Amino acid sequence: MSKNIDWQNLGFSYIQTDKRFVANYKNGAWDNGSLIEDANIVMNECAGVLQYAQTCFEGLKAYTTKDGHIVTFRPDLNADRLISSCKRLEMPVFPKDKFIDAVTQVVKANADYVPPYGSGATLYLRPYMFGINPVIGVKPADEYQFRLFATPVGPYFKGGAKPITIKVSDFDRAAPHGTGNIKAGANYAMSLHAIVTAHQEGFDENMYLDPATRTKVEETGGANFLFITKDNKVVTPKSNSILPSITRRSLMVVAKDYLGLEVEEREVFFEEVKDFAECGLCGTAAVISPVGKIVDHGKEICLPSGMDDMGPVTKKLYDTLTGIQMGEIDAPDGWIHRIK
Ligand SMILES: *Cc1c(COP(=O)(O)O)cnc(C)c1O
Predict the structure, then answer these.
(1) Does 3.30.470.10 match the CATH number of domain 7-153?
(2) How many angstroms separate the alpha carbon of residue 243 from the centre of ligand 1?
């Protein structure tokens, strides 16, 4: 029985669901973990996460496909990425099989919160890990907690995807040899001032450039860039400080194998941006948000795709990937993890 929720009018905010998965790391080993009902965490005032931000996270969605199954999309890649985040933050890795099992258990236990097919809403899953024992001298914690909760979220675009306006930020998101390529909570803490500032100035998002030379496009606070050239090539920036988006990597496969487009992952100079035909931001939440305008200190770059609709190639990419996710189009092997 589906919960009595108005799926169409759900926003993107936390709604507590029935069960979450918790596992603890102590004395050098993970316990088996289990589903619990308590949504609150009690920890010491000196917990590593509270003092030195030793935490990383993931984000993925569960949804109902056309034929009525509940699935998640490429959770193995979220598991792999959490492992890289843990390694970089000197945290014990959470094993991949345990990760997939936790996803499966949480979705099954909260199956009533998975929105119906066609609603556009999804059950957002948030796996995360943090140092939980007291740490006062700067060092990694000895004990950790892995958690995974679910919260239903509404359709990202209500009434169609309208192109957004972004600004070239004066702030940096990630240092050249820093933590930009992992999903560390600290990256987001750093980005809050920049996004609040951008919103106050009337922009939807920030475009971050490479901090070293400020000549190359990196990404936004939480989504990778895709550009379409005037001759329909799909181009995405390459840099060691970009977070490897699973959506972006999937879209590159869709572009090449499903749409027969040429794809390129390479350095993208800001200078070239004015010559692209389309631009989009990709991430789990929206799949692709079309960008209509990029503003660099008052200088406007208006993408030829305009401010009314997604560009034609971006739209094809969007429709194909969401079609694969929703079970309307055959998926490449291993992309769809069926839960129910
Ligand atoms: C999570 C995230 C993305 C998007 O990754 P997906 O796996 O596609 O959801 C992009 N950029 C940053 C900085 C992120 O944290």
Answers:
(1) yes
(2) 6
Q: Which residues are identified as catalytic?
A: 183
Class of 164-325 in CATH? alpha beta
> Domain segments of the chain: what residues?
7-153, 164-325
Say which residues have a Cβ less than 8 Å from residue 180's Cβ, sequence separation at least 6: 173, 174, 187, 218, 239, 240, 241, 242, 243
Q: Is residue 168 within 8 Å of 205, Cβ to Cβ? A: no
Nearest residue CA, atom 15 of ligand 1?
222
* Global model pTM greater than 0.70: yes
Amino acid at 22: V
Residues paired with residue 235 on neighbouring β-strands, in sequence order: 227, 264
Residue 109 tokens, joined: 């236990």
pLDDT digit string (tens) for 40-82? Answer: 999 999 999 999 999 999 999 999 999 999 999 999 999 999 9
CB distance 20 to 85 below 8 Å: no
Task: Kindly tell me the sign of the dihedral angle through the C-alpha atoms of 16, 96, 184, 203.
Answer: negative
Q: What is the rounded average pLDDT for all residues in the chain?
A: 96
**What pLDDT does 7 receive?**
87
User: How high is the pLDDT of residue 4?
Assistant: 81
Read off the DSSP letter of residue 250. H
Is residue 243 within 6 Å of ligand 1 at its C-beta? yes
Instruction: Look at residue 159 and tell me whether its pLDDT is greater than 70.
Output: no
* Alpha-carbon span 285 to 12, nearest angstrom: 9
Integer Cα distance of 260 and 232 in angstroms: 10
